[in-house]
Amino acid sequence: MFRNKEIPVYLFTGLLESGKSTCIQEVIEEGNFSDGAKTLLILCEEGEHEIDADLLMSNRISCVTVEEEDDFTEEACKKLQEQYKPDRVVIEYNGMWDMEELYGDVLPEHWIVVQTFATVNALTYQVYSSNMKPLLMAHFQLADLVIFNRCTEEMDKPAARRSVKAINRRAQVLFESEDGSVESNIDEELPYDVNAPSITLEDDDFGLWYLDISEHPEKYAGKTITFKGQVYRNLTFPKDAFVPSRKAMTCCEDDIAKIGFMCHFTGAAKLETDSWVTVTVRVQIQKSRKHEGNFPVLYADQVEPAEPPEEEVVYFG
Question: Where do the DSSP E strands lie in 165-220?
Fold first, then answer.
């Protein structure tokens, strides 16, 4: 009889030869699945690295392969659960298959994704980013941890990290060099003095500032920031609030959205939507359940009309 008990799922995604199998083996070797529970490993593509069979056996891991996307269905998952009766499931997902379909149609409702790893081969990252960016970004969007492996000294790690954070601010990003060393604290060289009490952002600085204050709001608490933005308001906003926003492209031209932070200003209701303004704001940090922690809220001392920047769209790469 099929039981609808909750099954935790650990999902490993990434494009071909990104190091998914190696990552899974390292996770197993570190003892993460050595608690005696039964694990079902579902392989959705044949990787360049084959996971050690003895390692699988010693950790009570059963391995099955699904070669065709059409064969990976909710019904197939339920049959695998009937057959193997796992306590948890690990999926090495084919990087060319549809991520949204996996979450929406393939995984049974009681299979709960508890952690998602996205692996990236740093040696091929730029090629994929230039030619298959929407597909690559789909893996970043859902990941809890993004691992760039085979990193060289020449790699622009801050730019790679920005590309992830622009689409998924909660993701942790690691960089693993060819010698096995791992970096997580990648210093971003900011184009302004973050230690100054007052900061004036150039038009091109907005993207870096937006990502940095989103990740480290405490650095900006109490500071005065001057920058240019486009007025955005909707019916859900308080009368004294608007967002001095910028259009940002996180993936491709079809994926442009406005970004910014709520700004309180007594004359907000009189501001013309989509008009450009230069704002001077004070930053306060507030608790937010929606954003799971501290979040910046702006209070405008001054709002003046402004000309649009030469480049209206913000890029993160």
Answer: 172-177, 182-183, 198-200
